[in-house]
Each structure stands twice: as C-alpha cells, then as structure tokens.
Amino acid sequence: MAPAMEITTPSTEEAGQDTALAPTEVYSPPFETPPVRSSWAPVRVGRSRRFWTIALAAALLLTGGGVGLLYLDDTNNQNANRALTSQNEQLTGRTQNLQTALTTTQNKLIASETQVSDLTAAAEHPTLRIWNVPQAISGSNYYLGAGVPDTFTYHLKLSSTGPISVSILSIRQFGDAVQCVQSGAGVTNYCMHHRGSANGWLSVTSVNFDFHLAEGCAAYLLVITAAGPVTVTPDISVTYSPASAATGACA
After folding, report:
1. How far apart are CA 221 and CA 152, in angstroms?
2. What's this model's pTM, rounded to 2 decimal places?
3. pLDDT band at 1 (very low <50, low <70, confident <90, very high)
C-alpha cells in the first residue's frame, strides 16, 4: 500500500510575505488610436455606362417580348395550317364527289343525246306494222295478196305451217300471172310465180326480206300461194323512207 501524502495549505501570513516580496508591475495605458471616420462617398456612374445599362435592359425586354411573340406567331401558324389542311381535305372530298356527279351527269347526257338521236330518227323514219293477222290458204287455186306501199321500205317477214311460194310482183307482172290462170296455162300456185317477179321464193316455210323498190314507186303487190291448205302468219312492217327519185318499175 502506497504511503499517504499530506498536503499543506500555506497560511495567511506566508501568503502575505510572498506577496510583499514580489515586485510591482508597471501599468501601461492602452494605445490610443484616432477615431475611424467613415470615408463612404457616392459613386458616380457615367452617362455612357448608364446608357448601356438601359440599353441592355431594353434589349432583354425586347428579346423576351420577341420570344413571346414568336411563340404566339408559331402557335397561330400551326393552328392556321391545321385549319387549312382540314379545309383542303374537305375540298378534296367535295371535288371527288363533284367529279363523280359530273361523270354520272355526262353519262346520262350521252345516253340522253343517244335517245334523242334515236327518237329524232324514229320521228323522221317511223316504222309501222301493217299485217300481223294469220291467214289460211285453202289450196293451189287460192292466193293471199297485199299491196306494197309507196315511199316505204317493206319489211317482209312471215312463216307458214307448210310449203308456200311468195313473190313480189309489179302490176304488169301480176296482170300476166292472172292471164296465165285465166287462159288455163296453169293453176294459181304456178302462174303467180312463173310470169316474172321482182323477188320470189318457191316452196319455203318462212321469209325475212327488206324490199326497197317501192320507196319511189307505187306499183308492187305481194302474192302468196300454196299447193295445199296452209296457214300463213305474217309479221310485216314498213319504215317511212321516201326516195329522192323514181325506183323499180317506175324508173
């Protein structure tokens, strides 16, 4: 175990003796400095510098305003472009519709013009049916006869239930055929087709022929005969087509 240490506090007297023996320190007053005076003074800004400052501020304002105006102008242009594009699409659609309508109208006009031309031609040259009732021939001594009208094209079309002979005769040729029958030179079925004819068909069951010699001449007859009983079904029509001069037996 370590030995205890005794600490002794100096007495008052001892402390006073030590203080008396210490030399007295000389006091020096603090260094006196003159008071600090404010040396601030307003700084003058030159006119040129002030002008450039104002100009810079104005430039910034103008630049900001210009950017704003450019933005607004660009937005307006985009809106205008979109509006024009929409209008252009609408106009394109309308143009296509109008073109379709125009094509349809032109086709209708062409059809109408064709129809008018046909009607005009029909009005100038009408076609009329003049004989379409079935007729019977009893035998070789009988005949069917009809006049071929003047100034018309004669559309001879007929059929029969048996063989028939058909002739288009001038009036003179018909007189010769009648004389043949009356003189006993032959029966009607023979004489009407063997004394001359403009056109003739022997022992047929149908005829389809356009006769033009009566367009300028009123001198022709149609005669139909048969060797035995038959029924003839005619479908005869005429088209008005007057000739500019005499035709056939009249020329």
Report:
1. 13
2. 0.58
3. very low
